[in-house]
What does this fold into?
Amino acid sequence: MSGDSSFFDYTPPAEQETEEESALVTVVSLRSDSHRIKGKKYWLATKVDDDSFELLLLNEHRVPTGDPRIIGSGEFAAHYTLELDYYQQHVRPAMEQQDARLSRGESHREQGELYSAEMEYADALAVDEKNVRATFGLGMTYLEKGDVERAQEVFAKVLQLKSAFATEHKHMFNDFGISMRKNGMYREALQYYNRGVDLDSSDENLFFNIARTHYESGDWENCFRYLTMCLEKNRGVQEAQKFCRYLIKKTEEDETMLREMGGGENGDTLRSDILNLLRKMQVAAGVELDDAIEKTHEIRDRMIALEEEDMQMKEIEKDIYNVDADF
It folds into this structure.
């Protein structure tokens, strides 16, 4: 099934960033390692508030990597020592070089220079194999190249990166999901979005994305279910409202869709479940209950009429077949 409406390219608006005071950033090491020359560990330390600090381990390339660890100010003062010169001489230049690689990769990809983009992202991942921007960028590059197999490998890696699902990466998360859907990778896109729901079940945009992915794959029941969940969380999402109106109109006009919704081995049970979801979806979108019930009854009657037409046609075909068989 193809997306035949422009809202399927909808990208949720980016949350407006607010200016914050510059956080205290430095490098620290363990006091107990002060005597060590080889194998000494360093962390990038960022002050979160008066009572806590965020630590990111520095790898052999002197860039922060992995998931952050939060510690209290007491533990920070008791067990860690500042390494101010190490930050200025080694870490800051390494981070700036890494950011330059990522920026070049993103620029190449935006200009359609996919081979160059792939090289830059690969270089960035050689420095930090858990870098989220590089991982997302590489996956997007493979998708744009049509290399689905390698994109799936990156997709599997993304699911293992807890930091990939942080709020700051929402725009990359959304772009990657859209690209997977457009490439027909419905199963992967759904796994991806459901992983996001596990981490942030309050984001209505995730439910919208899941609904339209089910739409693309022809799963009407789950399409209606997740769009209803999106609208119940935030009726004000205009694209979800538009999607709801589009689906209701489509059920009135698309006989193929009505046959699919009421067919299958479960028959009447499936039809009943879907009609209940259709009614709930309309109510979630702000339609009066009586109006939603009336519209649902109209759709039900049309589904039953089509089912009867199909049964009559089968009987006619059966009669024709039997007549032919007598000769």
Residues 221-327 form one domain. The mean pLDDT is 85. The first strand starts at residue 25 and ends at 30. The longest helix spans residues 289-325.
